[in-house]
Amino acid sequence: MVHSTGSDATQVKPQAWLQLVWEPTGLYRLAHLAVVALSLLAVVYVVSVTGGTPNPFVHLMYGPILLAAAGSGAGVATAVGLLAGVLMGPYQQASLAAAGGQPDGGWLVRALIYCAVGGGAGLVFERLRRSLRATRELAERLARGYGNTLRTLAAIVAERDEQTGGHCERVAYHAHELGKRLGVEGHDLETLWWAGLLHDLGKVGIPEYILRKPGKLTAEEYREVQRHADLGAQILLSASPEFATIAEGVRAHHERWDGKGYPRGLAGEAIPLFGRILAVADVFEVLTSRRPYREPSSVPEALAELQRNAGSQFDPQVVEALLQLVQEGRVQTEGVPPPLYHEVPVFEVRSMGLESQRAN
Ligand SMILES: [Fe+2]
Predict the structure, then answer these.
(1) Residues 259-269 pLDDT 10s
(2) Measured in angstroms, how far is the CA atom of residue 64 from the centroid of ligand 1?
(3) What molecular function terms (GO) are annotated for this protein (predicted)?
(4) Residue 84 C-alpha to ligand 1 middle, in angstroms?
(5) CB 36 within 8 Å of CB 71
(6) How far apart, in whole angstroms, are the C-alpha atoms of residue 118 and residue 111?
(7) HSE on the CB side for 110, CA within 13 Å?
(8) Domains plus CATH for the chain?
(9) Mean pLDDT across the stretch 106-129?
(10) Do 175 and 293 form a contact (C-beta atoms < 8 A)?
(11) pLDDT at 159 (0 to 100)
(12) Helices (DSSP H) in 162-218: which residue ranges?
């Protein structure tokens, strides 16, 4: 069973300063207009005290005009351009004093240029805004689609997981907790959670009679079971290349620190970190759970077993992180309610280059 507390929505939360410039809403809109007005007056002041319109500081006026274009669109930017033209025209005292007044044609042409720049830039920004909005909506739709794909795969695993009473959810939980203690952060942590939930996805392709066989497996049957690591990764990659990191962890969850694992026989840090974490989370969960053929080990017994195999089967650092987890009383075993991630993570679409964040 995959639990969700529901937030599928992704939303982009721009920083406050950006909201003064780009798509200001509510109070930010008022603040944006105030910044435009203040910067416009500041330019008028600078031009006045530096000799009037004949000097190059007059070009500073493009600042407030473009600011208005970015935040308020073509109409407001044109109006700001007109206002700027007038303020730089007959009322520009320094010009009058220094040059005996500006010829009418001169300031009018400059005002028209300001208006044209403001209006043109406003149109370009509006177009850009529309296209960014469309891209963001597409990214959000894709993120929901990817999340649904992962949930569907997780539901398939959960069907089989019923036999082992929440094994995959507990592996996901412990992998997530271990990852946190090993410096995995943000989206990577959520990816690790998914990798934990889906680590045995490939078992859907292994014949049921082998998986349920009560006795010892033959060498051929064991080779068949070993295929599940690669198979799970292949299913994920065929669903989307976006799942590459999850697939990498799933493929490596039976590798051993000493290189005697499968499917590739990788050793030490050549094993992807997610694989090393999943290996510890998986075995810890299996040891502390009841199986038809044996009673569950206690948490100290399971921890001792993992510590004995640190440096041979397991990454010692990951086992150390498990020790911390046990000392903090954060491990979950069979019999307690299934551990819940605070919510099923939204899968972030990184290839779109947009910083989507979960709505809180
Ligand atoms: Fe496995």
Answers:
(1) 999 999 999 99
(2) 61
(3) cyclic-guanylate-specific phosphodiesterase activity
(4) 69
(5) yes
(6) 10
(7) 20
(8) 10-137 (no CATH), 167-337 (1.10.3210.10)
(9) 92
(10) no
(11) 77
(12) 167-181, 186-197, 208-211
